[in-house]
Amino acid sequence: MSAGSIGEYIEHHLKNNTLELVEGSAFWTVNVDSVVYSLITAVVFLCFFGYIAKNVKSGVPSKSQNFIEMVIGFVNEQVNDLFHYKSKVVAPLALSIFIWVFLMNFMDLIPVDLLPAAGQAVGIDYMRVVPSTDLNITFGMSFAVMLLVMYYNFAKKGLVGYAKEYFGHPFEGPNTFVKIILSPFNVILNTVETIAKPVSLGLRLFGNLYAGELIFILIAVFTLGYGLEQLMSLGGIAMIVGQLLLGSIWAIFHILIILLQAFIFMMLSVVYLAQSHDTGH
Questions:
Q1: Considering the entire predicted model, what is its pTM?
Q2: Of 146, 155, 132, 172, whose CA–CA distance to 262 is shortest?
């Protein structure tokens, strides 16, 4: 097994199936696999929750209904602890973010060669199945949240109220002259904070899932290039056992990671939305 074959294997698994909308333009390029698997996980989420909602029982609920009610209760409790305003959007949005991000992350637990191999069998050369390892997807979600935050900033505080907050905080002066002097520093700090929120939100999810995917790929290369005869030898069997053991340990640990990252993305989104509703200043 050569270093070149390992490098080619890793590079192949980290390459998206792309579609150029404008020939020769990297900007107008769509990662088709990321979009498709994002839509698939969204459909799974909507269909499953829709099915449970249509079959709700008031008497003895099913195990699926109990599970969904537990998830909804958990999310609703987190939202109530952080968001102390009336809104018909925030709780459903938090639930959607939590479940959707978790399902996208969960794709990382599927064996790394399973779906790509099936894709190659039908002529698809490249396929990445974990949407949250694509920076375009994580940034798209984080910027969508921040657009909603910006909307509520203007809707709840008004243009004047938001301008006062943007120019007048965090440094407040005792009089108008000092406030004018401090306003450029406030603008710089608030601009950095405004940009940093979606960037950190998207990068955090991307970085953790990308690292998790890469570790699964590195574990997969243990038996790369070995023939059947080599695998049946004592060394080959030891390699297979080690691969299965490491893969299982990392998969169990990774379950916590994918759940935690979905929870963090949801919680930070709720925190940012709560800040946009705060008119205390």
A1: 0.90
A2: 132
